[in-house]
Amino acid sequence: xxxxLLYPLADLFSPFNLFQYLxxxxxxxxxxxxxxxxxxxxxxxxxxxxxxxxxxxxxxxGPQSHLITKKGTPTMxxxxxxxxxxxxxxxxxxxxxxxxxxxxxxxxxxGAIGLSDDYLKLKKRKNTGLTSRQKFLAQCVLALCxxxxxxxxxxxxxxxxxxxxxxxxxxxxxxxxxxxxxxxxIVGASNAVNLTDGLDGLAIVPVMIAAGTFALxxxxxxxxxxxxxxxxxxxxxxxxxxxxCAAIIGAGLGFLWYNAPPAAVFMGDTGSLALxxxxxxxxxxxxxxxxxxxxxxLFVLETVSVILQVASFxxxxxxxxxMAPIHHHFEKKGWSEPTIVIRFWIIAVVLALLGLATLKLx
Length: 362
Description:
- By secondary structure, the protein is mainly alpha-helical.
- It has helices at 2-6, 22-51, 66-69, 78-92, 98-124, 132-152, 177-196, 204-221, 224-230, 241-259, 268-286, 289-295, 297-316, 326-332, 337-357; strands at 161-163, 171-173.
- The longest helix has 30 residues, at 22-51.
- The mean pLDDT is 93.
């Protein structure tokens, strides 16, 4: 919005020229989202506590310590996260860019699904909200809508092609199967972040790390000069998503202030489903879906641990881990919560660096 309002006035006031630069607007989005959360975070948490006197329902089959340490903590903190991200994006992004709207559809749509899930959990006073089938179907519909928008504005064969890292300009044509693949990426990323969100601060920092990584990737693939130098596929317009990624980082920093151990608020499915879906949609736009599996490797690890645990128990009647997702396994082994969280953050940083390395190793 500010780009359209102020940049045309640059002849009258030269500092408005800054709005043409993606880096400047990305910084503006970061600080705007962060300031919004700091300005309204405390009041928003008080509001959540007023409507959730008993806090988020805690898993009865989870670590027993959580029944004490997490008791009374409100959920749905992701609501303010999404508000801050949306406002910052609308203020600082180029609103004529359809990629921005495609990612916003996924983010806010998945946030609405998560909000419904959180509401039902609070209403039932159980750790079960929407059924898995209901959530999955709604996510698939939204992911498909977003993918249709993305492919409609992306040139062929790039639109329905799968880019492979480590190879120069290698693009595998998937045709209509690309829609299935894109849905898998977006929905998979959404649920992977959701599974990771089990300890104070555990999910939000890796999300910010991944968002920062994809802010750089989106900027590079959207710039013809850099894309040509790095021998990566050029996606005109994708660079605008750097503004959106910066808004995630800013809102995430504000949220972490209140979510740091001991957490004053949880993001709930409202935030985790939305943030994961956003990362998946950004990866689809930037044609770096496989790289997302590397950058978000921590989320993949959490998801695989659940899949292996369920499969092993059904097939052999035995569990591989003391508890899944895997962060609970380490809790059961006696690791303290801050130790698990910080070590997982370190893993997320290393994986992000490996993901960035794929840009040059071609």
